User: Which sequence fits this backbone?
């Protein structure tokens, strides 16, 4: 057992942590990480990697010791409260046997001896379990049973305080190899480059051009103030209606949780994107919103017109292309892709069905998503929300900031999170990855939607409050929405 214990030196490089004052040489926990690991919020990320071949777990401990632990000392640290009351990351010895779970599932009743139902039950079980705070905040579950999608699966359960989706995807990319040739480094994927200022190489902006932009600047400021005001109201007094996708249950975060996924071709989405002159994200959000409204209408005709908003998570880093973990932790050079939780959110109102589903124009949902997202993309409300939470943390403390963040979630109907995954087939420990998806759990909402691309396909995950939403009916409604939009 001692072979799998690793002591982390306190002098080890901990780049990427906030530049708060250190206490006893320990690294401070960032305000957002404190927020995600509090009495108000306790959030985790599940990442499921589906293997093309049966899983051999004989080298699991060695792989984690050699690859995962050296990535960042957060994987070898626990969160403690310092003498001044501020939380710190404290390096500890890691007993890998406490972090690796190899469950024995109940015998399958499926004639083909597939374990889809048993796997789903196991995911529901671990989604509802908290991670122990007295050891590093992650686990790996090795599922050695076949399902319709794979011969086996690796399920990583990581506390959200370790980092956001961008951070954890970069960590995953640092642990995998190209499936066809492990000796060649994988290509780090990226979404479209962030828009850059285009001044034809001339940095001298004359007064005339400034005056031309003045009305637009004034409009942006006024709109940003309006968006911010609405966002604050959504975090305090404006609450979405109770509906088939929002139970309003006080303890929804601790209720049984179920996950189902749908796979789409990127090429099919690009057809809609090119015809409507919108982005892939616009098409996907439009599909999700239409599928949700169809589900609401099927359950309660009046609810299809109820007020409902989605909280969309945004990566606030200057760059959108992934960097290696080494680059993210390098404090000497500013890569613009620091480790940690660098995310904000914006509220998107879900368009209502103007008539019954048989007479509507499904493309209106895509165009509406495009209009709303473009209107909010560069809104001042996004950075102002971050400033507000930081002020609450500073004045009233981290628990008050976490409670405000929780209220913003509680008052909306769902959260949507989107990540770009590998563009080529990858393998982990010589196990080719057939597909994978992720899900945030512990959120105080009845519905969570995640979107992840991999090898020309998009995997959409629906995480639901099991006793309120029929996840299979919901995914069926999404499939109907997808077909309606593609056919239109």
Assistant:
């Amino acid at each position: 057992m001692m072979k799998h214990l690793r002591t982390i030196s306190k002098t080890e490089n901990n780049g990427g942590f906030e530049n708060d004052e250190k206490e006893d040489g320990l690294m401070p926990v960032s305000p957002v990480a404190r927020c995600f690991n509090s009495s108000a919020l306790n959030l985790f990320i599940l990442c499921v990697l589906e293997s093309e071949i049966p899983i051999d777990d004989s080298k699991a401990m060695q792989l984690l010791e050699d690859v995962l632990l050296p990535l960042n000392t957060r994987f070898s640290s626990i969160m403690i409260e310092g003498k001044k009351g501020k939380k710190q990351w404290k390096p500890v010895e890691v007993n890998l046997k406490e972090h690796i779970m190899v469950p024995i599932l109940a015998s399958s009743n499926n004639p083909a001896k597939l374990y889809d139902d048993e796997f789903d039950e196991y995911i529901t079980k671990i989604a509802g379990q908290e991670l122990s705070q007295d050891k590093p905040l992650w686990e790996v579950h090795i599922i050695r049973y076949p399902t319709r999608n794979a011969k086996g699966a690796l399920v990583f359960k990581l506390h959200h305080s370790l980092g956001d989706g961008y951070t954890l995807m970069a960590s995953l990319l640092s642990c995998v190899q190209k499936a066809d040739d492990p000796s060649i480094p994988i290509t780090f994927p990226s979404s479209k480059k962030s828009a850059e200022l285009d001044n034809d190489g001339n940095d001298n902006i004359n007064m005339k051009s400034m005056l031309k932009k003045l009305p637009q600047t004034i409009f942006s400021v006024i709109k940003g103030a309006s968006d911010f005001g609405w966002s604050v109201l959504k975090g305090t007094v404006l609450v979405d209606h109770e509906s088939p996708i929002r139970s309003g249950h006080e303890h929804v975060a601790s209720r049984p949780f179920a996950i189902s996924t749908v796979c789409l071709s990127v090429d099919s989405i690009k057809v809609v994107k090119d015809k409507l002159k919108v982005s892939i994200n616009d098409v996907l959000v439009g599909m999700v919103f239409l599928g949700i409204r169809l589900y609401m209408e099927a359950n309660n005709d009046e609810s299809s017109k109820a007020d409902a908003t989605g909280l969309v998570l945004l990566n606030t880093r200057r760059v959108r292309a992934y960097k290696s973990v080494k680059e993210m932790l390098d404090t000497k050079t500013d890569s613009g892709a620091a480790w940690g939780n660098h995310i904000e959110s914006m509220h998107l109102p879900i368009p209502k069905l103007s008539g019954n589903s048989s007479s509507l124009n499904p493309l209106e949902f895509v165009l509406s998503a495009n209009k709303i997202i473009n209107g909010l993309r560069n809104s001042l409300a996004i950075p102002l929300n971050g400033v507000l939470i930081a002020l609450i943390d500073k004045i009233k403390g981290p628990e008050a900031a976490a409670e405000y963040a929780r209220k913003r979630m509680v008052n909306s109907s769902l959260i949507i999170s989107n990540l770009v995954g590998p563009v080529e087939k990858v393998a982990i420990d010589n196990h080719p990855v057939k597909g994978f998806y992720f899900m945030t759990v512990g959120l105080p909402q009845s519905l969570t939607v995640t979107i992840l691309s991999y090898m020309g396909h998009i995997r959409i995950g629906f995480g639901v409050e099991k006793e309120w939403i029929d996840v299979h009916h919901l995914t069926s409604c999404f499939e109907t929405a997808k077909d309606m939009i593609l056919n239109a």
